[in-house]
Every structure is written in structure tokens, then in C-alpha cells.
Amino acid sequence: MDRKVLVAAALFAAASVAHAGECEDNFKKSGSIFSGVDFASRVTVPDLSVANAMGQMRGIMIGEKMDVITEDADTGTMLVEQRSTNMVRAIPTLINISSDGSAAVVEMTVKTEKGQFAKQDAMRAYMCPLLAKLKGGKEGKLAGAQGAKAKNSEDTTFKDVYVFSREIAREAKANALAVTARHKGRNYALKGKVDYIQEDGEDYNVSFDIPEQSEMLLQVPGDDQPRVGVACLFRPNQLANVLTFRKGDRATFRGQFLRYDDFKRVLWLQNCSQVKK
């Protein structure tokens, strides 16, 4: 192998080890299981701008199947989140990036909710290898440009519409503003019963029948939030299909999360289509 390549590889390996060691030295834990725990650390990457560090972190976190909820290059802040499942609650990670001369200081904070349990050693072992991936110099500039183009996962999440509605109700109780920020652009396929069908501007609004939580035989303890309606917006080119829908039909609709209105307590999916059996 060419000597220059060997030297470059050795320098990259040394830099990664240095980042990991710095991360471990700076690692700290605050809070408690009763109030929520923050796990935080930081690394300083020489010869790296804030913009390129932002791009790299975007690419790194999306590569870890995280969703970028919001980012602001001017303040050097980014919020990413592990997508929630039926078994796992969403876990937000806050990234703050600042400049120190020609270097970038990258701080990562993983924030768990109260009642969530996470081991400090496991969190350190998760966070530090991610920060160790940051590169400086020309390699960091290229990685930053590539990472800035990374897109959130386009995978479609299949859910029962009532289960999804209750999840949104609980999320809205904690922070209604975060609901749209968290889900906007995500693809969902929701299964349930058709309620009403009506025009909505140039689109066609097909709403699911969502019962009140008090009407259900099985109830989640502490889930006392009012119902959240779920509606799908179909484009005009879907009119032929929409005209075949009937109130009470069971169907699965696929669409992209558009927004949640906490005043109306309704969420909308856009560009919907029916998933055929």
C-alpha cells in the first residue's frame, strides 16, 4: 500500500481514538429517573467549521436511523430523535456546535423522559463512537457537504389508526408544538374504519372513525386525553378511488404526515392513497 495512504489512515485512526477518549473524559450525567436524565459529552475537532460539523452530524445521526426534527445553522443547534415504536418511546438528542478558533466544539446531550431507565456505561458506549466519526480538514469538509444532503428515513410505518391517535394524544399532552415537528414528512399507513368524506379545497378529506378512549374496553392507565381525529387528504387524481369509499368501510390509507392542530385536535396526512390488500 502507498506510504501516503498508510499515513493518512493512521492519522484518521488516531483522530478517531482521540475524539473517543475526549468524549469519555467529558461524559457526564445529570438528573434522575424521576425527573428525566441528561447524558452529555463534547469533543473539539480541529480545522472544522460549524457548518461542516452540522452537515456531518446530520449524516451521522440519519445513518443511525434517527430523524432530524429541526436544525439551525446560525445557532449551531440540531434536534434529532429516535423514532418511537410500540415498545420504545421517542428519545430526543440535542446537538450544539460552536466554533473555537478554527476548530468546532460539538456537544451531544441525550435526554430521557422521567421513568425511562438507561445505564450510564451503555449511553457512553453509544454516544462516543458517534462523536468519534467527526472529521476535520478537507475530509471533514467533504463529509459535511455529503451529510447535509442526507434525508430522513422514507420507510413507511404501519399502524392501527386508533393506536396512532392515542400516541399523538399523549405526545400532545407533553408538548403539542413538538408533534408536527416530530412527525412532519414521515410516511404512515394507517388501518381503520372510514367515517366521513368531504371536499377540502382542491383535495378530498377522508376521516377515520376514532372512538373516544372511554368507549374502549381496554384502556391505558393515565391515558385520559381527549380523542385526536385522523384525516387523510387525497389529491384530485385520486377522485375515482375516493368515490368508492363508504362510511363504515375498513381500509388502509398511506400518506405523509402534514400537521397536527391542537385546538381542533386533528392530524392530517397528505398525498394519500389506498393500500390494496
Q: From the 3D coordinates, which CATH architecture of the largest domain would you assign?
A: 2-Layer Sandwich
Low-confidence stretches are 3-14
Q: Which value, in Å, is the CA radius of gyration?
A: 23 Å
Strand content: 35-45%
| Termini Cα gap | 55 Å
Give the structural class: alpha+beta
Description of the structure:
There is one protein chain. By secondary structure, the protein is α+β, with helices and mostly antiparallel strands. It has six helices and twelve strands. The chain has helices spanning 3-26, 50-63, 120-131, 137-148, 161-183, 239-242, and strands at residues 28-32, 36-45, 66-72, 77-82, 91-100, 103-111, 156-160, 187-200, 203-208, 229-234, 250-261, 266-274. The chain has a six-stranded antiparallel β-sheet with strand order 1-2-6-5-4-3, with helices on both faces. Helix 1 runs antiparallel to helix 3 (120-131) and helix 2 packs across helix 4. The longest helix has 24 residues, at 3-26. The termini are far apart.
Features:
disordered N terminus, alpha+beta, elongated, signal, DUF3108 domain-containing protein, about 30% helix, 6-stranded antiparallel beta sheet, 2 domains, TATA-Binding Protein, about 280 residues, 5-stranded mixed barrel, 6 helices, OB fold (Dihydrolipoamide Acetyltransferase, E2P)
